[in-house]
What we know:
Blueprint: E1 5-11, H1 17-32, E2 38-44, H2 56-64, H3 81-84, E3 87-90, H4 93-103, E4 112-115, H5 136-160
Parallel strand pairs: 1-2, 1-3, 3-4
Helix pairs in contact: 1-5, 2-5
Amino acid sequence: MSDKISILFVCTGNICRSPTAEGVFRSMVEKSGWTDLFKIDSAGSAAHFVGEPPDRRAQKYAKAKGYDLSKLRARFIKPTDFENFDYVLVMDRRNMRDMEKVRQYCRNPKARLQYLLDYHPVNKGGEVPDPYGGDEKDFEAVLDLVETAVENLLKTLLQEKGLINCAC
């Protein structure tokens, strides 16, 4: 497992933004042919929706672009996630503060804690807005942000591994 690049996407409830990022990234990794190189998951900083599938609106827009989120289920973050993942990528400042607190309870944290949009060429360091209380267009906007960020994340990670002739 240590040879794999492990990525954990985190949002508040793990039913909108982070499962969207997980599903889109997983799909891009599969299309690139590097599935065996990655461990991919998502989690929430709150336990409100544990065991539930992604929001129907998130699934609708993802499916329209060819991403299947239907098998994903929400889970709650664990301090050991900071030992088991190389990257913990959060969606907003609140998630960052929450993950900094969780990381304190991990004995040997190794994960790099970053914003997902650190990998976005235009919105670098910005926040992925929470669409949950909004309308369907908010979910579409989140998907667009996530697609660009995770595509650049994949390219960055493959370049760092020296895999320059990838199919991504």
